[in-house]
Amino acid sequence: MLIETFIRKQLGLKAHTVTKAEETKGYMVIHIDRLGSRLLRCGLCRQRCRRVHSICKLREWRDLSMRKLPLKLRYRPRRVACPRCGVRVEDFPWAEPWARVTSALSNAVARLARELSWQGTARQYGLNWKSVATIVKRAVQYGLKNRSRPPVHVIGIDEVSRRKGQVYLTVVYDLERRVLLWVGDDRTEEAVRPFFTEEMGRRRCHTLQVICMDMWAAYAKLVREHAPQAQILFDRFHIVKHLNEAVEEVRRSEMRRLSLKEKVAFKRSRWLLLKNPWNLSDEQKERLSTLVRWNAPIVRAYYLKEAFQMFWDYRQPKRAQDHLEKWMRSAVRSRLDPFKKFVRMLHGHLDGILAWTQHRISSGAVEGMNNKIKSISHRSFGFRTADHFIAAIYHCCARLPLPVER
Ligand SMILES: [Zn+2]
Fold first, then answer.
1. Separation of CA 404 and ligand 1 centre (Å)
2. What would the pLDDT profile of 297-354 be if each residue is shown by its tens digit?
3. How much distance in Å is there from the Cα of 74 to the middle of ligand 1?
4. pTM over 0.70
5. Shortest CA distance to 181 belongs to which of 24, 399, 406, 343?
6. Which of 64, 131, 144, 378 has an alpha carbon 20 to 30 Å from 231's alpha carbon atom?
7. Cα dihedral sign for 272, 278, 280, 283?
8. Could you read off the pLDDT of 355-386 as tens digits, one per residue?
9. CA distances from 406 to 90, 212, 301 (A)
10. Which residues surround ligand 1, an ion (CB under 5 A)?
């Protein structure tokens, strides 16, 4: 089989043909021309058009490589007179109208960009970073427009930081399907409102049943406004995080008071206190008991934390509530400021915390997703602009469909 025939078949050309394939330095150039008088399609509505209006100047498209040689398609597009749209550039079966690479190449690039940094992807395909950014953004645009949108019942709203905790984005996950739904470019109420008004809309907001979030988040008012039927659930994952922070704060302020000799013994004790007791080795248990003898505040913090954790096991709302109230009283009596602060936070959010016994849903399940987002940011050395980062997040976490290759 001639190489021209092979490429024509691979490209699936019907109204076009390959006239010549020539090897130049660094590329295999594929010359394409019209095939006889077969009808060309309008680039806008894809309808077949009888009349060709004029011929444009020569254009080139980068394509995948054959062995080591990247292919370049060369063709002079026709303008067709479409009865519906007027004079338009024809439709190319190998590429989108705007594109300078073929659909096959842009899909291959988009797939690799889910695994590698944009820089790494660019290197792999001999493109520059900017071309990869354009391809990913177009793929995301297409994906968002064409993704399936089944009813959503349980969502988690969370924030992720961009560039060392200075700039924050809001991410919304569908916790049942474990997929990213939406990304907002800040963590304020105003920035998240479009999720309810634009992405979900009135009708889809009605199906929401449970909304998981952090107690500190500014989203509760939005939920009451746009999805009043939904139960707000302050997330186990976040509550435990605040609890651990309280323990850590006590530990740190105690460490400042300790003598040098005592400090050596306490080194790395941070992990001892955050670990579950049944996961400790003998040596670690030993160190923990030294800790117990030497420092009462740290130990009080530690046992308070352990006692709190029992809350998650209660199945009856009344019992869970009793436990929580008892715990809050003992935490206030503990004379540990970080715990008093934590109790004040709980007090303001009791309804959404007690909802746990009924729903037992946690966005901890999507913690993997947040880690993925962190690694996306890492491998790209932090995106300089939010919209690149947002595109990358959608691209890797939202399971968007890629354009269909014709
Ligand atoms: Zn048309």
1. 20
2. 888 888 899 999 999 999 999 999 999 999 999 999 988 999 999 999 998 888 899 9
3. 24
4. yes
5. 399
6. 144
7. positive
8. 988 888 877 667 778 888 888 888 876 677 88
9. 15, 41, 63
10. 42, 44-45, 82, 84-85
